[in-house]
Amino acid sequence: MARDHKSTRRRSRVIAASVAALALGGAALAEVQVSAASRPRGHDVSSHQKNVNWSKAKAKGARFVYVKATESHTYRNPYFGRQYNGSRDVGLVRGAYHFAVPNKSSGTTQAAYFLRNGGAWRADGWTLPPALDIEYNPYDRKKKCYGLSRTRMVDWIKAFSNEVRRQTGRRPVIYTTTHWWKTCTGNSRAFRSNHALWLARYDSADAGELPGGWTFWTIWQHDNGSGSLPGDQNLFNGSTAQLKRFAKG
To answer: Which of 75, 115, 144, 212 is the most exposed, fewest CB within 10 Å of its CB?
Structure first.
């Protein structure tokens, strides 16, 4: 995910272990064993994918998608409307995500911009909760945590989350990697109880470790662009019925 051009992150073919609980806003919803084969497949897209053939994506197995809406407080994906509405038109559960650039403006400012430009949520069973994509700074490798201390980074995420909750009634899903979370937040456990985890994991070294006290992932991004679906490849940690319940909130 992240910027609207191809990523250079490493890929992995790690197979996730079975996880019993499904998160609804970070809380365990059910103790249901769901096999990897039956987990709903999904993907995430940005302007890099442009005009997606949604009927073809669904025919290839897509059941949900996250669409990039915004970045920082100035950028909006010019393809957002057609991607977001097009996926819904063919029957996919879809949601919007925001790419955080914490050194540009406050978490509150970026959350408000996101919600004005596609990040809103409705309890219709078809709209996934808003998602925060937070990862290493792609614009300055010397400031990979955007120049923020761990404390300031945690405060930034809290401010973003609080504004999303204030406006929508839901806490955002947090998309991250274990490595980033440990490096840039000090492996904060402040979000594990009420934020669903969307884990990006390509390096087998991270295979058995989740960030910040989370005990399971809700969405797993296991490949960044080489799969059969447009964009990055994801799995939902539950059944299709649970996916709809997660969306409805």
So the answer is: 144
